[in-house]
Here is the input.
Amino acid sequence: MPELPEVEVVRRGLARWVTGARVVDVEVLHPRPVRRHEPGAADFAARLSGRTVTDVVRRGKFLWLALDSGEALMAHLGMSGQLVLQPRDAADERHLRVRLGLELPDGSDGPSRSDRSGERQERELRFVDQRMFGGLWVSPLVPTPDGLPAGAGGLGDVAAPGGGTPSEPLVPPAVVHIARDVLDPAFDVVGFAARLRTRRTGLKRALLDQTLVSGIGNIYADEALWRSRLHYARRTRTLPRSATLGLLGHVRDVMVAALGEGGTSFDSLYVDVNGSSGYFDRSLAVYGQEGRPCPRCGALVRRDAFMNRSSFTCPRCQPTPRTAHW
DNA sequence: ATTACCGCCTGCTGGC
DNA sequence: TGCCAGCAGGCGGTAA
Here is the structure.
């Protein structure tokens, strides 16, 4: 499933290749992925046709293409979504849901192709999604409540200080309640620590709460907790501030490491959600490793049912707290 | 207001 | 061989 680093890799690819592109046609092949566009598929297509992409922005796992109309094409990859840039004559993918015909800006011939110059190159931006948890919709943009840039935008490496171009202080309403993520320069570590202490819940529930910090899914939650030697049911209220800061550092480290792998694995926008991209081949200490030895101490990794999902822990490094908060 | 849980989706896997 | 339960899980909606 696409996690934050994969979404950021997609964002960078889009920023590079489709900034300045103009939408020439739109085809919705399945209604479900545009369900969040309430006026319907025809209106969705009409609002995109003829528009030019001015920026590509991400907050958490929400991604959007800012348009010269002042609106934005929103995208969420959900569990199995992909955004791929293809030649117009490429065969349809099995789970192709939406197709946007694009005219690339002058001087760009798109990824992995260098054919004749002099005329604008056409490509298709395709939304492919097997399970359709994700989707596309067109949305207005509203000012960010804090007046700061919306998230990761422009070209460059947001994880590197000074890298990237600040995005405009505009967000889609659907994203206003989504917290910034740990790769966002405007992420407020101190504010997060303070809010965590007011919560009456367990640590992993808090990490997965997108209104506290965004972009953390099941995999990164488990990996960061393992690195921090913390159990998922540890009460947030009892966590010392230093441990909170350490945990956030581990979240950032594991994401930046994945970003480094993912960012060098693709020369197109294709991200293989089934894991053969090299991204998921990265070593996971505990996630999905039930019954295998903990890389740190050798105890066998345990799998617990948690929130209708799974949590993987090392029973020795991450003992169950005596006062657990499930 | 805060917290917890359900259901949406499809394809693959394993047990019988 | 076929059938079906279980599983993957982010997020919006809703109940308590």
Residues 32, 78-80, 95, 129-133, 199-201, 205, 209, 307-308 of chain A lie near DNA strand B (CB under 10 Å from a C1'). Residues 71 and 140 of chain A are 4 Å apart (CA to CA). Residues 264-281 of chain A have pLDDT under 50 and may be disordered.
